[in-house]
Amino acid sequence: MRTPLFQLAERRTDLRTEVLGGVTTFATMAYIIVVNPAILAFAGFPAGPATVATIVVAAFGSIAMGLYANRPIGVAPYMGENAFVAFSLAAMGIAWPQMLGAVFVSGLAFLLFTLLGVRAWLAAAISSSLKHSFAVGIGLFLALIGLYQTGVVTSAAAGLPPEALVGPGGLLRAPDVPLKIGDVAAPTSLLAIFGFLLMAVLMQRRVRGAILLAVATTALLGSLLGHGEAPRGIVALPFTGEWSLAPLFLKLDVPGVLRLSFLPVLLTLFLMGLLDTLGSLVGVGAAGGMLDEKGELPEIEKPMVVDAVSCTLAGLVGTTTSGAYIESASGIREGARTGLAAVTTGGLFLLSLFFIPLIEPLQKLSYAYSPALVMVGLLMVSSVREIDFEDLTELVPSFVTILMMVFTYNIANGLTAGLTVYPLIKVAAGRGREVKPGAWALGALCASYYLFGLPH
User: Fold this and answer.
1) What is the model's pTM?
2) Mean pLDDT, to the nearest integer, of 97-124?
3) 1, pLDDT greater than 50
4) Which end of the chain has the smaller Cβ count within 10 Å, N or C?
5) Cα 219 to chain center, whole Å?
6) φ/ψ of residue 297, rounded to 5
């Protein structure tokens, strides 16, 4: 007898519950349609095509997760990875075709390592404290970007006369303090603060789609006060005109990233995607009671394969590393237990392709979408509770990771620093046996980042 596609009866659920769960998951993660293209615009990605690419990858990944892995988990471009690409890589002078090439190659590495079982081996080699420090560091990094975009935080050089910034020989002098508080009384700053507080209240009240609702409400209020524009339309045909994928589709530069100087970039994208995927899968699995007695998600390879293929597709169509979204836990709380929920989420992403003109103005209003960066950062920082503060051999590498990510304004610097320090401090403390072979391999790769003068 043929097994039903989604096994609704076996998982004690029904059609209505699964569809409701899928709609809920879409509502909680739909903010990515606004935020991801807005972030990528800083790296030169054209907004219209980047929006379409974001939606296409989210739709494909979510539907594939439902049909192939039969899990109620939505897929979309990751927060954190998009900031790494748009800010860290752009600061290194890397053009967006090479950024897409790096995303594509890292996706292929995901797929290969997943099929060979190496991905899980590497993940198991990284200590729990270090994994959570990555989340904390990326969260603070996102929050800093959000605060800077809102104007609440700004450069210490802002507002100073030119002569105050000129040093001996006419060279630009670095300010003694790199950052300072911005003009918090400015209307856009006040709107951003309002948006963040509204987001917090809605989330506390467990309102579905709290982040997206707060972004839209703040944008509407700002527009009424003269700080935005009304949508030029409501519906439009996707893949045509300014919503064409042509400017980004297959424009990736793969040969340009296959060299030693790109090793840290590829390693960072690989590890960020690896840890995000594992964290999200285990997190939503726990929310839905899907973990086994060992605390592991059964058949985890299937959703990992979906993540890997989605990431590869992301590089081809023009967006950043994609994978399972922790926001899927909201749909699971509504009772979703099968892939039908993920297919519903993916179908709603497809539907949103026709309403891009309604979304587009939000991407130009930093005071509206930047609070979402701060809120996502806040949620990620909660991982600090899982860092072992009693064991210095765990705390020091974790602290180094967080410090280097935030204060060098580069996620790769923090990730590689933490992985390099970890085995060294374990050996120095006489506990080298605790270091797994995979950690030594990662530490050696990360050390090359500094030995060959590659950090930025």
Assistant:
1) 0.76
2) 84
3) no
4) N
5) 23
6) -85, 120
